[in-house]
Amino acid sequence: LPENELSISNMRRVDLSTLGSSLHGDIRIFEQCKLLEVLNLHGTKCVGDIEAFLVQMGDKSVLNDIDISRTDICGDVKAFEFIRGLQKVDISGTQCSGTIKAFAHCTVLRVANFHNCIKISGDIEKAFRHSPELRLVNIQSTHCTGNIRVFQFTPKLEEVHIAFSKCSGSVDVFLKLPVVARVNTKGTNCSGDLDESRKRRSYSYTKSGVGF
């Protein structure tokens, strides 16, 4: 990563994902980028503490899209609570830790990907109760808990991956979501069969003469 802080201080978008494992450096080099909106370090060999980075960015940060997936960046996610304008967060495959409750104040969140973050836990009901813009949630292979009924408050949800998490509840909640296309609840305590529920609903509507 560049050592000259002045050369990057005015950057708004940084996407270094194409460099892959050839890129090494500490995420904290971007602390000086107070105008930074998008940061994509996916698949690089970047390191650093995500909490320390976000604290330095401050509660006036305009960061709305951060992807540090498959990097060596770690640390507690609790400082995400300061990034109120966050729309996309992808920390999948990292050693980041903490509770997803940190994202409860991210009310414009659209994409939340924590896949295979084995140190991430917390109640999804506390995290996503006020996230009406949510399109994708991936907490597969995490220690997240909670009832999936919370997704009744996310009407724009398209994909839900909660396999091998600690979540529970009835999959019938997804019948209330008009655009949901992919749901994976394998290895959870969730009850019901979404495909069967959809068939029953379709039959019920057709039988009543409405059809769709």
Q: Share of helix among residues?
A: 10-25%
Count of distinct strands:
16
Tally of contiguous helical segments: 3
How large a portion of the residues is in β-strands, by DSSP E? 25-35%
Order of helices and strands: EEEEHEEEEEEHEEEEEEH
N-end to C-end Cα span: 55 Å
Give your account of this protein's structure.
This protein is α/β, with parallel strands linked by helices and 212 residues long. The protein contains three helices and 16 strands. The N and C termini lie far apart (55 Å). The model is unreliable at 203-212 (pLDDT under 50).
What descriptive keywords fit this protein?
single chain; disordered C terminus; alpha/beta; eight-stranded parallel beta sheet
Give a quick summary of the entry.
With about 210 residues, the chain is α/β, with parallel strands linked by helices. The protein has helices spanning about 50-55, 125-130, 195-205, and strands spanning about 15, 25, 40, 45, 65, 75, 90, 95-100, 110-115, 120-125, 135-140, 145, 160, 165-170, 180-185, 190. The longest helix has 14 residues, at about 195-205.
SSE layout and pairings?
Elements: E1 13-15, E2 24-26, E3 38-40, E4 45-47, H1 50-57, E5 65-67, E6 74-76, E7 88-90, E8 95-99, E9 111-113, E10 120-123, H2 124-128, E11 136-138, E12 143-147, E13 159-161, E14 166-170, E15 182-184, E16 189-191, H3 194-207
Parallel strand pairs: 1-3, 2-4, 3-5, 5-7, 6-8, 7-9, 8-10, 9-11, 10-12, 11-13, 12-14, 13-15, 14-16
